[in-house]
Design a protein that fits this description.
Residues 57-77 are annotated as: Disordered. The structure is a single chain. Among the domains are: 1-37 and 108-141, no CATH class; 156-276. 9% of the residues are buried. The chain is elongated and about 125 Å long. Strand 1 (156-161), helix 6 and strand 2 (184-189) form a beta-alpha-beta unit. It starts with a helix and ends with a helix. Helix 1 crosses helix 4 and helix 1 crosses helix 5 (120-130). The longest helix has 20 residues, at 257-276. The chain has a six-stranded mixed β-sheet. 40% of the residues lie in helices and 10% in strands. By secondary structure, the chain is of the alpha/beta class. It has helices at residues 4-21, 32-39, 59-62, 111-117, 120-130, 164-180, 196-205, 215-219, 222-225, 250-255, 257-276; strands spanning 156-161, 184-189, 208-213, 228-230, 237-239, 242-246. It contains eleven helices and six strands.
């Protein structure tokens, strides 16, 4: 083989590199072409077993001049007489275990020697001589996999309440928005906006579409009131730059179905407008 010495040298350098760079039992992925190249191996030839003729096929057994041997006579054993010494049982000899020290492989060296002797350029030259069509990658394949961009946080409709009666009504309204309009909806108490830090943190996230609540409750909260604005021309309300739908008492919506339909119409219009943005 013309490249036998170079191939042996390549194997030694590759083993040094693997022992230094990777941990035991570590699995690495390769492409199909590289695997097929190194996996080629000729199957070993089967060793022909010598055919030993059986006793029946031997010429001595078939020749009439050699009679069949008679079986040896078995003499009966005599039992020991009374008063004789008992036969001592002989214990079998114990097999002694032999330990064989396996010398360490000549390829394993200290980490300092491996780093000193290793040269990827030599491996690359040898690979090009043996397999000129083999593609050598300078970067791992994982770097070519595109990273999926982070999905933006879904914005929701915020329903604000101050009393338990309002919470029950807004809970049913929130469930209807999720199931029929397929939009995000969150119920929050006005008390969560009492301090300045909570207000700034909430409005800086900008995770809301529009608000529903009683505007009178906003006036009692000074930090939340800073984000509230009402226009004089068309009497529209805004909270944190998002539309704000003023809510009446829950009893009015239960007693007058027309108001409930009008509220549902306003929610659908604002939701449709937010999707166009």
């Amino acid at each position: 083989m013309p490249h036998r010495k170079e191939y042996k040298k390549l194997v030694e350098e590759l083993q040094r590199y693997v022992l230094d760079q990777y941990q035991p039992h570590e699995i690495r992925l390769v492409d199909e072409a590289s695997y097929a190249f190194f996996a080629e191996e000729k199957a070993p030839k089967a060793v022909e077993k010598a055919v030993i003729p059986s006793f029946k096929e031997s010429p001595l057994a078939q020749s009439p001049s050699h009679p069949k041997p008679r079986p040896a006579e078995i003499k009966p054993l005599k039992l020991p007489e009374k008063g004789a010494e008992p036969i001592k049982s002989v214990s079998p000899k114990r097999e002694e275990k032999i330990t064989v020290e396996i010398p360490s492989t000549p390829f394993r060296k200290n980490s300092e020697e491996v780093v000193k002797d290793f040269s990827f350029g030599e491996i690359e030259k040898t690979l090009k001589k043996i397999a000129p069509n083999l593609q050598i990658l300078n970067e791992p394949l994982l770097s070519e996999i595109p990273v999926a961009p982070e999905k933006p946080k879904e914005k929701s409709i915020i329903l604000l309440y101050s009393e338990n009666k309002e919470e029950a009504f807004l809970t049913r309204l929130c469930q209807a928005i999720k199931t029929q309009l397929h939009a995000g909806c969150i119920i929050r108490h006005f008390k969560t906006f009492q301090d300045k830090d909570s207000c700034q943190s909430f409005f800086s996230e900008n995770s809301f579409l529009f608000f529903l609540g009683n505007p009178a409750e906003i006036e009692t909260l000074p930090f939340l009131n800073e984000f509230f604005r009402r226009t004089q021309k068309n009497s529209l309300c805004y909270l944190g730059g998002a539309p704000f739908i003023p809510l009446e008492k829950e009893q009015d919506y239960e007693s007058e179905p027309a108001k409930k339909r009008e509220l549902w119409k306003q929610i659908k219009l604002l939701l449709a407008g937010s999707h166009k943005l």
